[in-house]
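Entry for magnesium ion complex. Fields follow.
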Amino acid sequence: MTEDDVMPILELRGIDKHFSSVHALKSVSLKIGRGETIALVGENGAGKSTLMKILTGVYEKDKGDILIEGKKHNITSPLYAKKIGIGQVYQQAELIPELTAAENILIGEMGFSRKGLVNWKELKKRACAFIEKYQLSIDPDEKIKNMSVANRQLVSIVKVLQRNPKILIFDEPTAVFSNLEVSLLMSLIDQLKRDQITIIYISHRLEEVFKVADRIAIMRDGYLVSVIDNVNVKKEDLIQQMLGRKSSSMFPEKANLTSEEKILEVRNLSSEKIKNVSFSLRQGEILGIAGLVGSGRTELARAVYGLDRIKAGGIYIDGKEVKIRSPVDAVKHGLFLAPEDRRGEGLVLVRSIKNNIILSNFRSISRHGVCHTKSENSATQALKDKLSIKADSIHTLVGNLSGGNQQKVIIAKALLASPRILIFDEPTQGIDVGAKSEIYALLTKMREEGMSIIFISSEIEELQGICTRIIVMRNGAITGEVESGLEDGEKILNLMYRS
Ligand SMILES: Nc1ncnc2c1ncn2[C@@H]1O[C@H](COP(=O)(O)OP(=O)(O)OP(=O)(O)O)[C@@H](O)[C@H]1O
Ligand SMILES: [Mg+2]
């Protein structure tokens, strides 16, 4: 189907948007056909989420027209967007943990019966019908807080689906997913496509994009630079169009590890969530931790960092046992954790880039206990440049940055702390391909300078690309270890899924 054959379900004409001095969208025009799946790709800060927020009534456009089935609409509020059939799947953070799946799906729905009362029974039946229709493995009566991340995401999707949207937007739905969960989502999307729902799909994971999209729209620096059919597209070509330049090879060269010295040793560690975990980290090593979401990787990091209570076992640094009861203890012993949940634990959204980076960090740039604004500024500026954090200045609020750029601020924080042992939990989540390879190069450089790194990731390819060894977790325990190297992908998967 070419886009001119039938009336497009959605047409954008010359959409423009500024945030004070940031020109986020530059005359974006796009037509999408009914039942089509369009993937939207581009570097961090390219304008993808902003474009979607204009469609869902979160932001107002400065200029341009939005046409739904040929009719112009001025989308002034999220409610308006819902009414005309535009739905967005939000991250599971929008769900209420204490309520059940069904309650979460129904909340906010005004199902009035003729007597003027909310007809919960009817609504619940409808929610269950959706769960059944799409054969989702969720129990409507289970509380959200007891569900896996993937199932929560499915609940978010059903919540949107039961309003029968014509256009459904996914903005990085799989950022926190492992492979198995991604494939669950892919099969759900296949069904939605068969039901002729129009889908706009944003992701930095290009394999997913190639799997779901009919066409791929590429954004760069606020412009929509091209729209291509998803037929025989080469990954390198797509990346080149996204970055506007040829990308160098994704992973830096791996140097051989010279030191056998164990800087960190964890022996038989148990907490509420992890069981009898033992491993060691060698000086100057990047040790990968693989596993499904919920396998205990984050909990292991939390236990080592003094965030979760340790029930049994010990932690040894340079061969000596240390007691780590809080992050303060951990930092004292040279550890630093860059957490996975950037919006929750990692960053203060209402503070500036600079304040976030120097928060808990000022020791390294203050002399004799006095903080020097000038040195703070230059240190922060240097990191902003080094990581190409896209923002007006170091004083921009972190809450106003694109998702990927927020992630880079966390990395900057870790770099400034320059710990001996750095624990990174999903550092490349939501980061575009160009920035990713920059981060790999940085980590490798830090390693060469003697830092030892624990790298938790859901992407096996990147673990293999930069780690020296990879340990695999499942159900709170370590199921195995592999020497890194591309031939071991199969083995890692087996260890991840083995019951
Ligand atoms: N509320 C806001 N206030 C100020 N600037 C903003 C705001 N929202 C977005 N921006 C800026 O607009 C630009 C586009 O951001 P957007 O979030 O659309 O990028 P994105 O393509 O979704 O990136 P990512 O892949 O990192 O999620 C960025 O420079 C961002 O900092
Ligand atoms: Mg975004």
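NOTE: The longest helix spans residues 179-194.
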